[in-house]
Amino acid sequence: MFRILRTRALVGMLAAGALLASPPAWSQPQPSLSTAERVGPPRALTLSQAFETAWALQPPAASRLSRLDAALAARQAAATWTAGPLVADITARTDRVGSRSGEREYDVGLSAPLWLPGERERTARLADAQLAAVDARVSAARLRLAAAIRDAWWEWQRAELEHGLAVDRLENARRLNADVLRRQQAGELSRADLFQAEGTVAQAEVTLADAAAARTSARQALAALVGIPLEGAVPESALRSEPEPTGTPQPQQLDTAHPALAELAVLGEQSRRAADLAAVQRRANPEVVISAIAERGAFGESYNNSLVFGVRIPFGAGPRAQARIASARADADELTAQLGLERARVLAEIEGSRARLQTVREQLTAAERRAALARDVRGFIERSFRLGESDLPTRLRVELEAVEAQRQAARTRVAVATAVSALRQALGLLPE
How many CB atoms lie within 10 A of CB 142? Predict the structure, then answer.
Protein backbone atom coordinates (compact mmCIF):
# COMPACT_ATOMS: atom_id res chain seq x y z
CA MET A 1 0.00 0.00 0.00
CA PHE A 2 2.89 2.38 0.81
CA ARG A 3 4.39 1.81 -2.65
CA ILE A 4 1.05 2.48 -4.27
CA LEU A 5 0.62 5.75 -2.41
CA ARG A 6 4.18 6.75 -3.21
CA THR A 7 3.59 6.03 -6.89
CA ARG A 8 0.38 8.08 -6.83
CA ALA A 9 2.21 10.97 -5.22
CA LEU A 10 5.01 10.83 -7.79
CA VAL A 11 2.58 10.72 -10.72
CA GLY A 12 0.62 13.61 -9.23
CA MET A 13 3.76 15.70 -8.86
CA LEU A 14 4.81 14.99 -12.48
CA ALA A 15 1.33 15.83 -13.75
CA ALA A 16 1.25 19.08 -11.80
CA GLY A 17 4.69 20.02 -13.14
CA ALA A 18 3.62 19.26 -16.73
CA LEU A 19 0.51 21.40 -16.39
CA LEU A 20 2.48 24.32 -14.96
CA ALA A 21 5.19 24.11 -17.62
CA SER A 22 2.94 23.60 -20.63
CA PRO A 23 1.06 26.50 -22.27
CA PRO A 24 -2.73 26.20 -22.14
CA ALA A 25 -4.72 24.89 -25.06
CA TRP A 26 -6.67 27.51 -26.96
CA SER A 27 -9.61 25.32 -27.83
CA GLN A 28 -10.96 24.89 -24.30
CA PRO A 29 -10.40 26.22 -20.76
CA GLN A 30 -7.47 24.69 -18.88
CA PRO A 31 -6.92 24.24 -15.14
CA SER A 32 -3.63 26.20 -15.21
CA LEU A 33 -2.86 29.53 -16.88
CA SER A 34 0.35 31.02 -18.18
CA THR A 35 1.62 34.37 -16.92
CA ALA A 36 0.37 36.21 -20.01
CA GLU A 37 -3.09 34.70 -19.63
CA ARG A 38 -3.28 35.64 -15.96
CA VAL A 39 -2.62 39.25 -16.92
CA GLY A 40 -5.44 39.31 -19.47
CA PRO A 41 -7.32 37.23 -22.03
CA PRO A 42 -5.30 36.02 -25.03
CA ARG A 43 -5.68 38.15 -28.13
CA ALA A 44 -7.46 36.50 -31.00
CA LEU A 45 -5.54 36.71 -34.27
CA THR A 46 -7.05 36.29 -37.72
CA LEU A 47 -5.37 35.21 -40.92
CA SER A 48 -5.97 38.55 -42.60
CA GLN A 49 -4.51 40.42 -39.60
CA ALA A 50 -1.39 38.27 -39.70
CA PHE A 51 -1.04 38.90 -43.44
CA GLU A 52 -1.46 42.67 -43.25
CA THR A 53 0.94 42.90 -40.32
CA ALA A 54 3.56 40.93 -42.24
CA TRP A 55 3.03 42.96 -45.42
CA ALA A 56 3.68 46.25 -43.64
CA LEU A 57 7.26 45.07 -43.03
CA GLN A 58 8.00 43.88 -46.57
CA PRO A 59 10.48 45.79 -48.78
CA PRO A 60 8.02 46.17 -51.71
CA ALA A 61 5.55 47.89 -49.39
CA ALA A 62 8.22 50.29 -48.18
CA SER A 63 9.45 51.15 -51.69
CA ARG A 64 6.08 51.38 -53.45
CA LEU A 65 5.60 55.14 -53.09
CA SER A 66 9.14 55.89 -54.24
CA ARG A 67 8.71 53.68 -57.29
CA LEU A 68 5.43 55.40 -58.09
CA ASP A 69 7.16 58.78 -57.86
CA ALA A 70 9.87 57.59 -60.24
CA ALA A 71 7.32 56.29 -62.77
CA LEU A 72 5.28 59.50 -62.58
CA ALA A 73 8.42 61.58 -63.09
CA ALA A 74 9.26 59.53 -66.19
CA ARG A 75 5.73 60.13 -67.50
CA GLN A 76 6.06 63.87 -66.90
CA ALA A 77 9.43 63.92 -68.66
CA ALA A 78 7.79 62.37 -71.72
CA ALA A 79 5.35 65.29 -71.82
CA THR A 80 8.03 67.97 -72.14
CA TRP A 81 8.78 69.73 -75.43
CA THR A 82 12.42 68.69 -75.56
CA ALA A 83 14.03 65.28 -75.29
CA GLY A 84 16.34 66.52 -72.55
CA PRO A 85 17.20 69.59 -70.50
CA LEU A 86 18.40 72.81 -72.08
CA VAL A 87 22.17 73.34 -72.09
CA ALA A 88 23.78 76.77 -71.67
CA ASP A 89 27.17 77.39 -73.27
CA ILE A 90 29.21 80.50 -72.25
CA THR A 91 32.68 81.19 -73.69
CA ALA A 92 35.09 84.13 -73.71
CA ARG A 93 38.10 84.66 -76.01
CA THR A 94 41.03 87.12 -75.82
CA ASP A 95 44.48 87.42 -77.39
CA ARG A 96 46.01 89.15 -74.33
CA VAL A 97 45.47 87.29 -71.07
CA GLY A 98 45.44 89.55 -68.02
CA SER A 99 45.13 92.74 -70.06
CA ARG A 100 42.15 94.83 -71.10
CA SER A 101 43.76 95.48 -74.48
CA GLY A 102 43.45 93.34 -77.56
CA GLU A 103 40.66 91.34 -79.04
CA ARG A 104 37.62 90.25 -77.09
CA GLU A 105 34.84 87.80 -77.93
CA TYR A 106 31.97 86.63 -75.75
CA ASP A 107 29.67 83.81 -76.81
CA VAL A 108 26.47 82.90 -74.93
CA GLY A 109 24.42 80.04 -76.37
CA LEU A 110 21.59 77.62 -75.63
CA SER A 111 21.14 74.15 -77.07
CA ALA A 112 18.03 71.99 -76.85
CA PRO A 113 17.82 68.26 -77.76
CA LEU A 114 14.92 67.43 -80.06
CA TRP A 115 12.70 64.37 -80.07
CA LEU A 116 13.34 61.83 -82.79
CA PRO A 117 10.33 60.96 -84.96
CA GLY A 118 7.98 58.82 -82.83
CA GLU A 119 10.30 58.94 -79.80
CA ARG A 120 8.13 61.15 -77.63
CA GLU A 121 5.00 59.05 -78.07
CA ARG A 122 6.83 55.80 -77.43
CA THR A 123 8.58 57.23 -74.39
CA ALA A 124 5.18 58.15 -72.94
CA ARG A 125 3.86 54.65 -73.62
CA LEU A 126 6.88 53.12 -71.91
CA ALA A 127 6.36 55.40 -68.90
CA ASP A 128 2.72 54.28 -68.71
CA ALA A 129 3.85 50.65 -68.74
CA GLN A 130 6.38 51.35 -65.99
CA LEU A 131 3.66 53.00 -63.93
CA ALA A 132 1.41 49.96 -64.32
CA ALA A 133 4.31 47.64 -63.47
CA VAL A 134 4.72 49.21 -60.03
CA ASP A 135 1.32 48.06 -58.76
CA ALA A 136 1.56 44.76 -60.65
CA ARG A 137 4.81 43.92 -58.90
CA VAL A 138 3.38 44.92 -55.54
CA SER A 139 0.30 42.72 -56.09
CA ALA A 140 2.47 39.76 -57.08
CA ALA A 141 4.67 40.27 -54.03
CA ARG A 142 1.58 40.35 -51.80
CA LEU A 143 0.40 37.06 -53.29
CA ARG A 144 3.78 35.42 -52.73
CA LEU A 145 3.74 36.60 -49.12
CA ALA A 146 0.17 35.30 -48.74
CA ALA A 147 1.35 31.81 -49.71
CA ALA A 148 4.01 31.81 -46.99
CA ILE A 149 1.62 33.24 -44.38
CA ARG A 150 -1.07 30.70 -45.23
CA ASP A 151 1.33 27.77 -44.92
CA ALA A 152 2.59 28.98 -41.53
CA TRP A 153 -0.93 29.88 -40.36
CA TRP A 154 -2.49 26.49 -41.00
CA GLU A 155 0.53 24.73 -39.53
CA TRP A 156 -0.08 26.76 -36.39
CA GLN A 157 -3.76 25.86 -36.49
CA ARG A 158 -2.92 22.15 -36.68
CA ALA A 159 -0.46 22.49 -33.81
CA GLU A 160 -3.07 24.24 -31.67
CA LEU A 161 -5.62 21.50 -32.36
CA GLU A 162 -3.08 18.79 -31.57
CA HIS A 163 -2.31 20.50 -28.29
CA GLY A 164 -5.99 20.73 -27.36
CA LEU A 165 -6.50 17.06 -28.16
CA ALA A 166 -3.43 16.15 -26.11
CA VAL A 167 -4.91 18.00 -23.14
CA ASP A 168 -8.17 16.08 -23.55
CA ARG A 169 -6.28 12.80 -23.73
CA LEU A 170 -4.38 13.58 -20.52
CA GLU A 171 -7.57 14.46 -18.68
CA ASN A 172 -9.25 11.22 -19.82
CA ALA A 173 -6.17 9.21 -18.82
CA ARG A 174 -6.21 10.78 -15.37
CA ARG A 175 -9.89 10.01 -14.87
CA LEU A 176 -9.27 6.43 -15.92
CA ASN A 177 -6.28 6.19 -13.60
CA ALA A 178 -8.36 7.49 -10.69
CA ASP A 179 -11.07 4.91 -11.42
CA VAL A 180 -8.50 2.09 -11.63
CA LEU A 181 -6.87 3.23 -8.40
CA ARG A 182 -10.20 3.24 -6.61
CA ARG A 183 -11.03 -0.25 -7.79
CA GLN A 184 -7.53 -1.54 -7.07
CA GLN A 185 -7.80 -0.31 -3.50
CA ALA A 186 -11.16 -2.06 -3.28
CA GLY A 187 -9.50 -5.27 -4.44
CA GLU A 188 -11.33 -5.44 -7.77
CA LEU A 189 -8.25 -4.87 -9.95
CA SER A 190 -4.62 -5.88 -9.65
CA ARG A 191 -1.54 -3.72 -9.25
CA ALA A 192 -0.60 -4.59 -12.83
CA ASP A 193 -3.80 -2.90 -13.97
CA LEU A 194 -2.90 0.18 -11.91
CA PHE A 195 0.58 0.32 -13.40
CA GLN A 196 -0.91 0.00 -16.86
CA ALA A 197 -3.27 2.93 -16.17
CA GLU A 198 -0.41 5.02 -14.78
CA GLY A 199 1.60 4.22 -17.88
CA THR A 200 -1.27 5.57 -19.95
CA VAL A 201 -1.12 8.83 -17.98
CA ALA A 202 2.64 9.06 -18.50
CA GLN A 203 2.22 8.48 -22.23
CA ALA A 204 -0.44 11.19 -22.38
CA GLU A 205 1.93 13.58 -20.61
CA VAL A 206 4.65 12.84 -23.16
CA THR A 207 2.17 13.46 -25.98
CA LEU A 208 1.15 16.76 -24.39
CA ALA A 209 4.78 17.85 -24.08
CA ASP A 210 5.41 17.02 -27.74
CA ALA A 211 2.28 18.90 -28.78
CA ALA A 212 3.32 21.93 -26.72
CA ALA A 213 6.74 21.93 -28.38
CA ALA A 214 5.20 21.64 -31.84
CA ARG A 215 2.78 24.47 -31.04
CA THR A 216 5.63 26.71 -29.90
CA SER A 217 7.63 25.93 -33.02
CA ALA A 218 4.69 26.65 -35.33
CA ARG A 219 3.90 29.90 -33.52
CA GLN A 220 7.52 31.03 -33.77
CA ALA A 221 7.60 30.23 -37.50
CA LEU A 222 4.56 32.43 -38.05
CA ALA A 223 5.97 35.15 -35.79
CA ALA A 224 9.12 35.23 -37.94
CA LEU A 225 6.96 36.07 -40.97
CA VAL A 226 4.64 38.47 -39.16
CA GLY A 227 7.53 40.29 -37.55
CA ILE A 228 6.02 40.58 -34.07
CA PRO A 229 6.03 38.19 -31.10
CA LEU A 230 2.89 36.08 -30.83
CA GLU A 231 3.21 35.05 -27.20
CA GLY A 232 -0.27 34.96 -25.74
CA ALA A 233 -1.91 35.18 -29.16
CA VAL A 234 -4.30 32.47 -30.28
CA PRO A 235 -5.86 31.78 -33.68
CA GLU A 236 -9.41 33.09 -33.91
CA SER A 237 -10.86 29.69 -34.74
CA ALA A 238 -9.53 26.55 -36.34
CA LEU A 239 -12.93 25.94 -37.89
CA ARG A 240 -13.22 29.37 -39.48
CA SER A 241 -12.05 29.06 -43.06
CA GLU A 242 -11.76 31.72 -45.70
CA PRO A 243 -14.75 32.33 -47.98
CA GLU A 244 -14.82 29.68 -50.65
CA PRO A 245 -14.62 31.12 -54.19
CA THR A 246 -17.09 29.97 -56.79
CA GLY A 247 -16.63 29.55 -60.51
CA THR A 248 -13.51 29.07 -62.59
CA PRO A 249 -12.17 32.13 -64.44
CA GLN A 250 -11.30 31.89 -68.10
CA PRO A 251 -7.63 31.96 -69.15
CA GLN A 252 -7.99 35.44 -70.69
CA GLN A 253 -9.47 36.71 -67.43
CA LEU A 254 -6.62 35.28 -65.41
CA ASP A 255 -4.05 37.40 -67.23
CA THR A 256 -5.50 40.52 -65.62
CA ALA A 257 -7.12 39.11 -62.47
CA HIS A 258 -4.33 36.85 -61.19
CA PRO A 259 -1.46 38.91 -59.70
CA ALA A 260 1.28 36.50 -60.78
CA LEU A 261 0.03 36.48 -64.39
CA ALA A 262 -0.71 40.20 -64.39
CA GLU A 263 2.88 40.91 -63.33
CA LEU A 264 4.29 38.88 -66.22
CA ALA A 265 1.81 40.44 -68.66
CA VAL A 266 2.70 43.98 -67.59
CA LEU A 267 6.44 43.30 -67.61
CA GLY A 268 6.12 41.77 -71.07
CA GLU A 269 4.27 44.84 -72.32
CA GLN A 270 6.92 47.04 -70.76
CA SER A 271 9.66 45.13 -72.59
CA ARG A 272 7.79 45.39 -75.89
CA ARG A 273 7.40 49.13 -75.47
CA ALA A 274 11.07 49.41 -74.57
CA ALA A 275 11.88 47.57 -77.80
CA ASP A 276 9.64 49.94 -79.77
CA LEU A 277 11.41 52.92 -78.22
CA ALA A 278 14.83 51.46 -78.92
CA ALA A 279 13.80 50.98 -82.55
CA VAL A 280 13.49 54.75 -83.05
CA GLN A 281 16.51 55.63 -80.90
CA ARG A 282 19.02 54.43 -83.47
CA ARG A 283 20.95 57.69 -83.10
CA ALA A 284 21.44 60.38 -80.51
CA ASN A 285 18.96 63.23 -80.41
CA PRO A 286 19.58 66.18 -82.74
CA GLU A 287 20.09 69.57 -81.12
CA VAL A 288 19.10 73.13 -81.97
CA VAL A 289 21.72 75.71 -81.02
CA ILE A 290 21.15 79.46 -80.61
CA SER A 291 24.12 81.68 -79.73
CA ALA A 292 24.65 85.42 -79.18
CA ILE A 293 28.20 86.67 -79.94
CA ALA A 294 29.74 90.01 -78.93
CA GLU A 295 33.24 90.78 -80.29
CA ARG A 296 35.72 93.66 -80.82
CA GLY A 297 39.04 93.97 -82.66
CA ALA A 298 40.98 96.10 -80.18
CA PHE A 299 40.66 98.07 -76.96
CA GLY A 300 38.39 101.05 -77.34
CA GLU A 301 36.50 99.72 -80.34
CA SER A 302 32.77 99.09 -80.17
CA TYR A 303 31.50 95.53 -79.81
CA ASN A 304 29.86 93.91 -82.80
CA ASN A 305 26.85 91.72 -81.93
CA SER A 306 25.62 88.74 -83.91
CA LEU A 307 23.27 85.76 -83.59
CA VAL A 308 24.08 82.22 -84.62
CA PHE A 309 21.51 79.51 -85.35
CA GLY A 310 22.63 75.93 -85.80
CA VAL A 311 21.52 72.31 -85.80
CA ARG A 312 23.64 69.41 -84.57
CA ILE A 313 22.71 66.10 -86.23
CA PRO A 314 24.47 62.98 -84.89
CA PHE A 315 25.12 59.90 -86.98
CA GLY A 316 23.39 56.57 -86.27
CA ALA A 317 24.57 54.36 -83.42
CA GLY A 318 24.82 51.30 -85.68
CA PRO A 319 25.47 48.00 -83.85
CA ARG A 320 25.02 49.63 -80.45
CA ALA A 321 21.42 50.53 -81.24
CA GLN A 322 20.81 47.09 -82.72
CA ALA A 323 22.09 45.49 -79.51
CA ARG A 324 19.63 47.51 -77.41
CA ILE A 325 16.73 46.57 -79.70
CA ALA A 326 17.63 42.87 -79.69
CA SER A 327 18.01 42.83 -75.89
CA ALA A 328 14.60 44.46 -75.34
CA ARG A 329 12.91 42.08 -77.78
CA ALA A 330 14.57 39.08 -76.14
CA ASP A 331 13.19 40.19 -72.75
CA ALA A 332 9.71 40.55 -74.27
CA ASP A 333 9.86 37.09 -75.91
CA GLU A 334 11.08 35.49 -72.68
CA LEU A 335 8.32 37.07 -70.61
CA THR A 336 5.69 36.06 -73.17
CA ALA A 337 6.85 32.43 -73.02
CA GLN A 338 7.00 32.56 -69.23
CA LEU A 339 3.46 33.95 -69.12
CA GLY A 340 2.19 30.99 -71.13
CA LEU A 341 3.88 28.50 -68.81
CA GLU A 342 2.65 30.31 -65.71
CA ARG A 343 -0.89 30.42 -67.06
CA ALA A 344 -0.87 26.66 -67.61
CA ARG A 345 0.55 26.10 -64.13
CA VAL A 346 -2.08 28.32 -62.50
CA LEU A 347 -4.92 26.57 -64.31
CA ALA A 348 -3.58 23.16 -63.28
CA GLU A 349 -3.17 24.35 -59.70
CA ILE A 350 -6.75 25.63 -59.63
CA GLU A 351 -8.12 22.30 -60.85
CA GLY A 352 -5.91 20.39 -58.42
CA SER A 353 -7.00 22.58 -55.51
CA ARG A 354 -10.67 22.06 -56.32
CA ALA A 355 -10.16 18.29 -56.51
CA ARG A 356 -8.26 18.34 -53.23
CA LEU A 357 -11.03 20.31 -51.54
CA GLN A 358 -13.65 17.83 -52.70
CA THR A 359 -11.53 14.91 -51.48
CA VAL A 360 -10.92 16.28 -47.99
CA ARG A 361 -14.61 17.09 -47.63
CA GLU A 362 -15.44 13.46 -48.30
CA GLN A 363 -12.73 12.47 -45.81
CA LEU A 364 -14.24 14.82 -43.24
CA THR A 365 -17.65 13.18 -43.58
CA ALA A 366 -16.13 9.75 -42.96
CA ALA A 367 -13.88 10.99 -40.16
CA GLU A 368 -16.74 12.67 -38.31
CA ARG A 369 -18.86 9.53 -38.60
CA ARG A 370 -15.98 7.45 -37.25
CA ALA A 371 -15.41 9.92 -34.39
CA ALA A 372 -19.09 9.86 -33.44
CA LEU A 373 -19.14 6.05 -33.38
CA ALA A 374 -15.91 5.89 -31.39
CA ARG A 375 -17.30 8.41 -28.91
CA ASP A 376 -20.43 6.32 -28.41
CA VAL A 377 -18.43 3.13 -27.98
CA ARG A 378 -16.11 4.84 -25.49
CA GLY A 379 -19.06 6.01 -23.42
CA PHE A 380 -20.58 2.54 -23.40
CA ILE A 381 -17.30 0.80 -22.48
CA GLU A 382 -16.53 3.42 -19.83
CA ARG A 383 -19.82 2.76 -18.07
CA SER A 384 -19.33 -0.99 -18.51
CA PHE A 385 -15.83 -0.78 -17.03
CA ARG A 386 -17.05 1.11 -13.99
CA LEU A 387 -19.63 -1.60 -13.42
CA GLY A 388 -16.96 -4.29 -13.76
CA GLU A 389 -18.40 -5.72 -16.94
CA SER A 390 -15.36 -4.85 -19.12
CA ASP A 391 -11.67 -5.43 -18.52
CA LEU A 392 -8.95 -2.78 -18.56
CA PRO A 393 -7.29 -3.78 -21.87
CA THR A 394 -10.62 -3.33 -23.63
CA ARG A 395 -11.12 0.01 -21.92
CA LEU A 396 -7.65 1.22 -22.95
CA ARG A 397 -8.04 0.00 -26.52
CA VAL A 398 -11.38 1.76 -26.93
CA GLU A 399 -9.94 4.93 -25.38
CA LEU A 400 -7.04 4.98 -27.83
CA GLU A 401 -9.38 4.38 -30.77
CA ALA A 402 -11.63 7.23 -29.66
CA VAL A 403 -8.68 9.60 -29.25
CA GLU A 404 -7.32 8.70 -32.67
CA ALA A 405 -10.74 9.11 -34.29
CA GLN A 406 -11.20 12.49 -32.65
CA ARG A 407 -7.70 13.53 -33.73
CA GLN A 408 -8.35 12.46 -37.32
CA ALA A 409 -11.62 14.36 -37.47
CA ALA A 410 -10.04 17.51 -36.05
CA ARG A 411 -7.12 17.36 -38.48
CA THR A 412 -9.50 16.82 -41.36
CA ARG A 413 -11.50 19.90 -40.39
CA VAL A 414 -8.29 21.92 -40.57
CA ALA A 415 -7.47 20.19 -43.85
CA VAL A 416 -10.75 21.43 -45.32
CA ALA A 417 -10.00 25.00 -44.25
CA THR A 418 -6.47 24.62 -45.61
CA ALA A 419 -7.80 23.34 -48.93
CA VAL A 420 -10.13 26.35 -49.23
CA SER A 421 -7.19 28.62 -48.51
CA ALA A 422 -5.08 26.80 -51.12
CA LEU A 423 -7.83 27.24 -53.70
CA ARG A 424 -7.96 30.97 -53.00
CA GLN A 425 -4.18 31.12 -53.31
CA ALA A 426 -4.33 29.33 -56.67
CA LEU A 427 -6.93 31.85 -57.86
CA GLY A 428 -4.71 34.73 -56.76
CA LEU A 429 -6.99 35.87 -53.90
CA LEU A 430 -5.53 37.38 -50.74
CA PRO A 431 -6.40 36.20 -47.21
CA GLU A 432 -9.71 37.27 -45.71
Answer: 20
Question: Residues 295-304, buried b or exposed e (16+ Cβ, 10 A)?
Answer: eeeeeeeeee
The conformational region for residue 300 under phi > 0 = left, psi -120 to 50 = alpha, else beta, is left
Give the N- to C-terminal CA distance of the chain in Å, as an integer.
60
**Cα 54 from chain centre:** 8
Phi, psi of 110 (to 5 degrees): -125, 140
Please state the pTM of the whole predicted model.
0.76
Distance in angstroms (rounded) separating the CA atoms of residues 335 and 353? 26
Tens digits of residue pLDDT in 257-275: 899 999 999 999 999 998 8
Residues 127, 71: contact at Cβ < 8 Å? Answer: yes
Gap between the Cα atoms of 255 and 251, Å rounded: 7
Q: pLDDT tens-digit profile of 123-151?
A: 889 988 988 899 899 999 999 999 999 99
DSSP bridge partners of 44: 234
Q: Which are the contacts of 215, defined by CB distance < 8 A and separation ≥ 6?
A: 23, 156, 159, 160, 162, 163
